[in-house]
């Protein structure tokens, strides 16, 4: 196993075979996980519609990032989720609808809807597995949309935080 200039791990066929031979139950053994059972691995594989292929290293980092922004590995349901409609259904007042509408336009202009879908998937997965994450940090707490998704717990409307602090 080697890493390229973008820190992508490059696995050769022997790396994969060695992993399967040393982990016959398909359990991950990294220090960050306690292991993933076969049913979870199968569920993930069943829901992945495409695999990220290794990309050539003769491109710059900005191009590399742009090419990978739509290749989020998540279940099909999340990939097809109308994230804007979901966010708007979470609003309870006209003021919240207005704020979310403005933020969603800004996210759309930056082509970040796939990121929002992935963040929803990430938060749902963390909740399902009782994983605790932080209250909020940095300029992301200025986004009411991220608050509704659950990325942070700071109500930017309550504290009158401007979205301009986040999406500059």
Write structural notes for this entry.
- This protein is mainly α.
- It folds into 2 domains: 1-71, no CATH class; 73-168, no CATH class.
- It is 46% helix and 2% strand.
- It has helices at 13-22, 38-47, 61-68, 76-79, 83-89, 94-109, 113-128, 144-149; strands spanning 2-3, 9-10.
Question: Which terms summarize this structure?
Answer:
single chain; 168 residues; mainly alpha; 2 strands
Please identify the structural class as seen in this structure. Answer: mainly alpha
- Biggest sheet, spatial arrangement of strands: 1-2
What is the count of helical runs?
A: 8
Helical coverage, percent range: 40-55%
In total, the number of domains comes to 2
Q: Assess the beta-strand content as a share of residues.
A: under 5%
Query: How does the overall form come out from the CA principal axes?
Result: globular
Radius of gyration: 19 Å
Average residue pLDDT: 78
Ends apart, CA distance between termini: 38 Å
**Helices and strands, in N-to-C order?**
EEHHHHHHHH
Low-confidence stretches: 27-38, 48-52
The counted number of beta strands is: 2
The major sheet is characterized as: 2 strands, antiparallel
Furnish the topology, listing elements before pairings.
Layout: E1 2-3, E2 9-10, H1 13-22, H2 38-47, H3 61-68, H4 76-79, H5 83-89, H6 94-109, H7 113-128, H8 144-149
Antiparallel strand pairs: 1-2
What is this structure, in a nutshell?
It is built from 8 helices and 2 strands; from the N terminus they run E-E-H-H-H-H-H-H-H-H. With 168 residues, it is an all-alpha fold. It is globular, with a radius of gyration of 19 Å.
